[in-house]
Amino acid sequence: MRKIVLFGFLLCLFTQSTSAQRRENIWMISPWSFVGSYSGLDFSTGVADTFSLARPTGFFITNSGICDTNGNLIFYTNGVAISNAHHDTLLNSNDFNPGYASTENSLQLNVSQGTLIVPKPGSDSLYYIFHVSGEEFTAHSTLQQQPLDMKYTMVDMSMDNGLGGVPLDKKSISILNDTLANGLITACKHGNGRDWWIKIPRFYSNLYYTFLLTGDTLLGPFIQNIGDSIRYDIDGQGCFSPDGSSYAEVTLDNSLNIFRFDRCTSLFYDATHIQVPNPTPGYPDNEAFGLAFSANSRFLYVNLYTRIVQYDTWAGDINSSLTYVARWDTFADPFYTYFYNAQLAPDNKIYIGTYGGDNILHYINQPDSAGLNCQVIQNSFFLPYPNVSVPTYPNYDLGALTGSPCDSLIASVNSTSPKNNSFNIFPNPASDYFWIKYDIPVKENAQLILYNMLGEQMEINNLYGSFKSLLVHTSQLSPGIYLYKVLMKNEMLSGGKIVISR
Question: What are the backbone angles phi and psi of residue 327, rounded to the nearest 5°?
């Protein structure tokens, strides 16, 4: 297993939003126990409206979908099948997510955040579905069902007359082999506002794998060890704050990890571990199932079976900011409407599924408000058909960091076209060394300058026109992502990224 560790530290203070892409406009939900007629939510008017239709794809827990930038549904998945906008099987998508869990649950997958859809940066038609299944094995004296690898499947919307399809050479491509957490796949925009950081935790550890998705390639996995180990991931949820400055995850043993997040380097820092208290000691009725951040990124809501807890992540002591903002009212329709997983919606409300599978959703009406002023509304949002979970989305609208090195430096490198194609760095990723091949006039000199992700100059290498290549040793560089420029007479001839791995 190749391991790359990213180093760097940057506190990201200011964000800038792009215009709304409307990629979360349509939520396809329900039901999980049968196929036939299904519910959905439409946020096109700015408020949630329900609809129903007949379609062959239902959901249990795994649920991802995406719209185009005009808010029109283009495809969705339950971890077993992918459906197009006509609710038919997406071209070439059969058996896209092989594994014991997918086979056992042949209609829908029961893994929390087992799939995630991310547009390819710079493309209007290509999308990545990152996904896991699960395999049975014994570990830690317990029968486990964990993902043993992470894959991606690409969707090309130019196929099948615009309904989309899976290119056969981009189906179920394995990118990581290890014992992973049950889903919990999340993503956040890079500080440049264009690329994506993709994260998934390793099971029974405090290790997080990270991938960097750019318009050119998928880099990684990079690794980081931080926080408390994940040991009980049968259920739970993870998410980034809308502004990308924080990340939180909760698992079924009420273990809550909160980190600050550096969008330039992908590193977590300032780890906070909280054991969310069970308000009914001695009764296993308040395990944690879901969480969501408020739209202003300040308040974090954790859903237990019969309670909803609010934390103020801006407080000096986050643990002490705990406030119970809801107690389940014992309603049943027809099953108990226990609180389940959550998702911040385009209307800035947080919608919550029900563990029993009912014809309702709970929602938090004013999640930016402290304490009871957040207004948890129970059993008042009725659906045409039963439902368990809500879909999970990254923040597609998050823009570039204003004034940060990873915004300005990367933007300048990538927006500048080389004067010619006579510069080539290889291998990339590199380990102990790399070569740069170049072609400049014999009597001229140039400079190869390396920067870290904070924009700090790391080293300068002279390129002489009388030669055509240079061997650069990297033993003095820490593993990570670096930016390079080739300058001649203060004019940039080439630039890009190089990954150092060991």
Answer: -125, 130
CATH of the domain at 299: 2.130.10.10
CA distance 249 to 202: 13
Question: How far is Cα 245 from Cα 242, in angstroms, rounded to an integer?
Answer: 8
Q: Which of 195-199, 401-405, 469-473 has the lowest mean pLDDT?
A: 401-405
How far is the C-alpha of 280 from the C-alpha of 323, rounded, in Å? 15
Q: What angle do CA 122, 128, 133 make, to 5 degrees?
A: 165
DSSP of 377-422, one letter per residue? EEEEEEEEEEE--------TT--PBTT-HHHHHHHHHHHSPPSSS-
The Cα 173–Cα 98 span in angstroms is: 11
Q: Looking at this protein, which amino acid is placed at residue 105?
A: N
Task: Tell me how far CA of residue 331 lies from CA of 223, 307, 309, 349, 502, in angstroms.
Answer: 44, 13, 19, 21, 56
pTM above 0.70, yes or no: yes
421 shares a domain with 357: no
Highest mean pLDDT among 33-47, 77-91, 138-152: 77-91
Please identify which residue in the block is written with the tokens 């929602």: 363
Q: Please give the residue range of the domain that contains residue 442.
A: 408-500
**Could you tell me if residue 233 is left (phi over 0), alpha (psi between -120 and 50 degrees) or otherwise beta?**
alpha
Tokens 């290498």, residue located:
461
**Separation between Cα atoms, residue 235 and residue 288, nearest integer Å:** 8
Contacts of 263 (CB under 8 A, 6+ apart): 12, 188, 189, 190, 191, 197, 244, 245, 401, 406
Query: In which residue are the tokens 């808010």 written?
Result: 71
> What is the pairing mode between strands 376-387 and 358-364?
antiparallel
Question: How many distinct structural domains can be found in the chain?
Answer: 2
